[in-house]
Design brief:
This protein is of the alpha+beta class and 389 residues long. The chain folds into two domains: 100 residues, Phosphorylase Kinase, domain 1, CATH 3.30.200; 274 residues, Aminoglycoside 3'-phosphotransferase, Chain: A, domain 2 (Alpha-Beta Complex), CATH 3.90.1200. Helix content is 50%, strand content 13%. The strands form four sheets. It has a five-stranded antiparallel beta sheet with strand order 1-2-3-7-6, sandwiched between helices.
C-alpha cells in the first residue's frame, strides 16, 4: 500500500526538521513556489540555511486529475540529478535527500539565482550561460553514452531510466499533436490560417515523422529531456540546470536543440538592437559542446573505432543535423501546442506578438524540413537574421 500523500507547507517544514536538515528549534519561513505543470515546490528558509522540497503530483496540474501521471518520475529525476552532478557538478543542484514512495526530492536552494527565461524576457544577459550549458550537455551526454561506458554498462544504466509516461507527453505534445487538429493544441484564432497551412504541409509532416522515429528509437545517452530556459537558474557568473524529470535515453541532439530553440524564441520577442547577445549564445553553446565532446572523446573512449579518421567529425555533423530538426519542432509546438513560452505569449502588442509567432512557425517548419542543409550555428543564426529583415 502506498504511503504517498501530498505535502502541505506545514508538513514540508516538519519533514526537513525531522530529517535534521534544519534544526527543530529553527524559526523558518516557507511558501509553495511551483509554477510548473507537474509538481509542488516548497521554498523553506531557516535562520542559516534554506532548502527546496519538490514533490511530484500524481497528475498534471495544467490539466488536473483527469491526466494521471506516474510518481516514478520523481525517482528518475532524483537519480538523474545525482548522475548529472557526478559529470557536471558545477551545473547541477546538490541533492540532500529523496524518498521514492513520497516522490520527494530535497535539494539546495537556488533562489539567489534567476530562472533564465524570466531574466532574458526582462533583458538580462548571462554571459556564461551558453558556455556552462554547452559543457553540461557535452559532459552528461558523453558520460552516459556507449563511448564512455561501453555498450554493456550503458545498456544496464539505460534500463533504469525507462520513462514511458513522460516520454509519451513529449511524443504527443512535441512530435505529433501540433501537426494535426488535436484537442491539446492552443493558439490564437488569428493564427488559424497559418496553423491550418502547417497541418496541410505533407512534406513537413514527413520530416516530423522521421524525427519522431529518431526520438522513439535512438538511445545514445541520458538526456535531460526538457532543457529549455525555464529549466535553468542563472546569474552573470553561475548556471544551474534543474528539473530532469523527463530524463531518458534518447538521441544526442535533443537537449541542445531545445536550449537553442528557446533562445531563438526569445530573439523573436526582442527588438532588433537587442538580439545580438542571444545570437552569440547560440553560436557559443555549439562551439563549447563540440569542443568538450571532442575532448572527452579523445580522453575517455572505449570504442574500438574511436581513432578511425572521420568518425568523430561524422558523429558531430549528425548530431547537429538532428538538433536543427528538433529545434524546429520545439519552436512549432511552443507556439501552437499545449505548453507555450512566456517569451512569445508575453508580447503585449497584438500585431508584434502575432508576427513573432508567425516567424516561430515558419522558421520552425523551415529548420525541420531543411535541417540537412545546415552544418553550423552561424548558418542557423544567419537564417533567422534573414527572416527577420
Amino acid at each position: 500500500m502506498s504511503s504517498y500523500e501530498p505535502l502541505t507547507i506545514d508538513s514540508a517544514v516538519a519533514l526537513v526538521k525531522k530529517l535534521g536538515l534544519l534544526a527543530e528549534t529553527d524559526t523558518v519561513s516557507a511558501n509553495e513556489i511551483g509554477d510548473g505543470n507537474l509538481n509542488y515546490v516548497f521554498h523553506i528558509k531557516g535562520t542559516e540555511k534554506s532548502l527546496i522540497v519538490k514533490q511530484a503530483l500524481p497528475y498534471a496540474k495544467v490539466v488536473g486529475e483527469s491526466w494521471p501521471l506516474t510518481l516514478e518520475r520523481a525517482d528518475i529525476e532524483n537519480r538523474a540529478l545525482r548522475l548529472q552532478g557526478t559529470f557536471a557538478p558545477d551545473y547541477a543542484p546538490k541533492v540532500y535527500y529523496s524518498d521514492k514512495d513520497l516522490a520527494i526530492t530535497i535539494m539546495e536552494d537556488l533562489s539567489h539565482l534567476t530562472i533564465a527565461r524570466t531574466g532574458l524576457i526582462h533583458g538580462e544577459d548571462y554571459p556564461l550561460i551558453a558556455r556552462h550549458t554547452g559543457e553540461f550537455i557535452a559532459r552528461t551526454l558523453y558520460g552516459t553514452s556507449d563511448f564512455a561506458l561501453g555498450p554493456q554498462e550503458k545498456k544496464k544504466l539505460q534500463h533504469t531510466f525507462s520513462n514511458p509516461e513522460l516520454c509519451d507527453i513529449t511524443e504527443g505534445l512535441v512530435f505529433t499533436d501540433p501537426f494535426f487538429n488535436a484537442e491539446t493544441n492552443d493558439f490564437e484564432e488569428s493564427l488559424r490560417a497559418d496553423v491550418e497551412k502547417l497541418w496541410q504541409d505533407d512534406e513537413l509532416k514527413l520530416h516530423a515523422a522521421q524525427l519522431k522515429r529518431l526520438f522513439l528509437t535512438a538511445g545514445d545517452a541520458l538526456l535531460h529531456g526538457d532543457l529549455h530556459t525555464g529549466s535553468i537558474f542563472a546569474s552573470p557568473a553561475e548556471t544551474k540546470i534543474i528539473d530532469p524529470e523527463f530524463a531518458f535515453y534518447g538521441p544526442f541532439g535533443f537537449d541542445i536543440a531545445h536550449f537553442t530553440a528557446n533562445l531563438f524564441m526569445n530573439v523573436l520577442s526582442r527588438e532588433e538592437g537587442r538580439r545580438e547577445p542571444l545570437y552569440e549564445h547560440i553560436v557559443t553553446v555549439w562551439d563549447v559542446f563540440n569542443r568538450e565532446f571532442s575532448r572527452l572523446w579523445n580522453e575517455q573512449n572505449t570504442e574500438a573505432f574511436a581513432k578511425t579518421e572521420g568518425y568523430l567529425e561524422w558523429l558531430l555533423a549528425d548530431i547537429f543535423e538532428q538538433a536543427a530538426g528538433f529545434m524546429g519542432l520545439e519552436m512549432i509546438r511552443r507556439t501552437i501546442g499545449l505548453a507555450h513560452v512566456k517569451d512569445l505569449d508575453g508580447i503585449v502588442d497584438d500585431q508584434q506578438r502575432l508576427q513573432a509567432k508567425r516567424h516561430s512557425l515558419s522558421l520552425g517548419a523551415h529548420f525541420v524540413k531543411e535541417r540537412a542543409s545546415y552544418s553550423s550555428a552561424d548558418q542557423l543564426v544567419a537564417a533567422v537574421k534573414e527572416a527577420l529583415q
